[in-house]
Amino acid sequence: MVKSISAGLLGLGTVGSGVVKIIENHQDKLMHQIGCPVEVKKVLVKNQDKKRDVKIDSYKLTTNVEDVLFDPEIDVIIEVMGGIEQTRDYILTALRNKKHVVTANKDLMALYGSELLTVAAENECDLFYEASVAGGIPILRSLVEGLASDRVTKMMGIVNGTTNFILTKMSKDGRAYEDVLAEAQALGYAESDPTSDVEGLDAARKMTILATLGFSMKIDLDDVRVKGITEITEEDLQYSKQLGYTMKLIGYAHRTGDHVEVSVQPTLLADSHPLASVNDEYNAVYVYGEAVGETMFYGPGAGSMPTATAVVSDLLGVMKNMRLGVNGRSAVAPQYPKQLKLPDQMFSKYFLRIHVKDQVGAFATLTALFSERGVSFEKIIQLPVKDSELAEIVIVTHQASLKDYEEVLQQLNDLEIVKSVKSSYRVEGDGSL
Amino acid sequence: MVKSISAGLLGLGTVGSGVVKIIENHQDKLMHQIGCPVEVKKVLVKNQDKKRDVKIDSYKLTTNVEDVLFDPEIDVIIEVMGGIEQTRDYILTALRNKKHVVTANKDLMALYGSELLTVAAENECDLFYEASVAGGIPILRSLVEGLASDRVTKMMGIVNGTTNFILTKMSKDGRAYEDVLAEAQALGYAESDPTSDVEGLDAARKMTILATLGFSMKIDLDDVRVKGITEITEEDLQYSKQLGYTMKLIGYAHRTGDHVEVSVQPTLLADSHPLASVNDEYNAVYVYGEAVGETMFYGPGAGSMPTATAVVSDLLGVMKNMRLGVNGRSAVAPQYPKQLKLPDQMFSKYFLRIHVKDQVGAFATLTALFSERGVSFEKIIQLPVKDSELAEIVIVTHQASLKDYEEVLQQLNDLEIVKSVKSSYRVEGDGSL
């Protein structure tokens, strides 16, 4: 009979502090579920003397990672320090020392998840990472267990809170990107260098993890086509609204037959879509399964306590497995070889805003170009551009292949009557105009 | 090494047919996860010769339950026949014969869940019932595992698709209850006798199961205060809309300290609440945890394939446990003794619509009555009632205890100026007027 279970923490920042608090505040509940106490025994920190808003005995803090990784009494390593290469080494060392690992590190899992899971299995250790995607939402568990019997064909995620906050404020209050970004930074929702969020890289990492699990196929970060939100204008948002759509940064993963595509890009979502009303810093993942149909999982995507909830729930999973003696048996290797769709296999509707010279025959020239490529129009708005000789044309296409659509885009730029292609986005669902 | 796993089905109706289809269609995925084939070996049916829309060898069908329950080769019994007393006997027999059980039966679990789980544990058998609440949404798993480390303080569920369909159509199209009910019956969303749905009993059963798990406290069906949707009028829905609310039949489970309350009742939800945009026959469960904050789980609440997905995912759980030799170890007995709130411990805002005689001093009399009981007004609308000497008064109160509010209601009925109390509902969140 195990008398108590000890965890070692790597990192005591935002998430680490939350983990310590939950283990302390919910000790009764944890004990009830696993039948013995849980203790945080050692914590790797950068600075032992730093003032912290969490109560922890100072003798538990160390600046030497070996005190945590090699402590024979520590059963589980909780990695909440972030970083990639060095952190990978720490986790590999922990696993090879037969210590289970719980991590919240999406960057690491997106890049080295497959390697780490293999080493974990070889050492009969658990490696859980629920917190790495969509913080407080138990989405990985839902994919792996709740929908285990189904065949997932589509996942769409609002998996970055910063960009969702920015787009919500821009849409609702008609404010400019730079203005809202500054507010998000002031509120702590955006980093001082927001590149990874606003350029879509953070979301792409999470989609790598989701697609790998949902499609049971090893998807790499390089497989994800990525476009961020920095070029979205107030005009784009106004037209979205007018057409019955809401602009969101959507991580999109779609399977047709044995081939998949994964992207992160600003998308016009029909207002009636469940994701369209996910606002502010909230995250949500929409999953379509052949048998179950539409499901959606909604919650806080980041933050100290929500992310820590996912970490400690994973810790509980490890501890339950310890009590049953079945650690290292739950990960399932990908079932399918990776097969990516080619651009002529990816179909979507698109929104396109262009400025053309306002002259006789301009529209006919455009129409001819699109119809040559078999790209047809679902909706069109044409308006004069103030104080200019230009007309603004907004088009929502019917379903077209990415190959055809990109050729149309290319040729548009070459047309003499086209002043500029102002913007172009994926469209999901039917708007209302 | 297990060579194959055999399941026996009790029932081959809507859900049972879905289970057979998923096991056949997704055999590759199931095998990949558990490493051996799964077979449906015997099926209890009422009529062996009935034409069915599912392919199954006729020799597998039987009208004798013992052929299923006592087949030594059957490892898992899947109960999708419905019913209560006799079905309970079957499941008890199965468990005592060391057969694991997966059930989709909310009626049974709401009434006998506690007994059945105890017998399952005594026999080292799994008893899983994800499909009993909110069909295709893996909500029980999310509560038990994903949010295992958190303390859930509030759950609100749209857990009955029939009533959500009816209320959505009434709200959006301004149609009358009877009219929409007839459509729902024609579409197969409502039974010919819709009582259990429209009076809230079906939702109450599901809330019993959710509250028991979420609060780790054995909640009985009798503990749930229940009010259905049959008295909701078009006027109520119009005022809701005007005040920035959406009317939903909400299963409400709330914990304050160690005391809980559980109810099912029509509720005015602020339009901004995530549940407010859950429409048509869809279900969703909103869970508030101390650490995680707001989460919501959305999906189809019923239907052959969605419900069957939950059943087969449970079956997979049983099979994984079989391979690991850890069946019958995952259920956790309630941690807390049942403590229900008294009416003076239940707080809410309320919507109230009354007809009063349109005479001098009427409003002052009303105001005095409310303020005596400490129930204050957040919003008031007063309008004359057409072709009468009456005025219609609509009130949204601030937070008040149920005790105070019910006394106000009682005394209103006794007031000479009050013609009638037309309607009264719980209110959740802030509207927009």
UniProtKB/TrEMBL annotation, chains A, B:
Pathway where this protein functions: Amino-acid biosynthesis; L-threonine biosynthesis; L-threonine from L-aspartate: step 3/5; Amino-acid biosynthesis; L-methionine biosynthesis via de novo pathway; L-homoserine from L-aspartate: step 3/3
Cofactor(s) this protein requires: a metal cation
Domain of life: Bacteria
InterPro entries: ACT-like_dom_sf, ACT_dom, Asp/hSer_DH_NAD-bd, HDH, HDH_cat, HDH_CS, NAD(P)-bd_dom_sf
EC number: 1.1.1.3
Catalytic activity: L-homoserine + NADP(+) = L-aspartate 4-semialdehyde + NADPH + H(+)
PROSITE patterns linked to this entry: ACT (PS51671), HOMOSER_DHGENASE (PS01042)
Domain ACT: 351-426
GO molecular function: homoserine dehydrogenase activity
Catalytic EC class: oxidoreductase
NCBIfam families: PRK06349.1 (NF004976)
Protein family: Belongs to the homoserine dehydrogenase family.
Protein name: Homoserine dehydrogenase
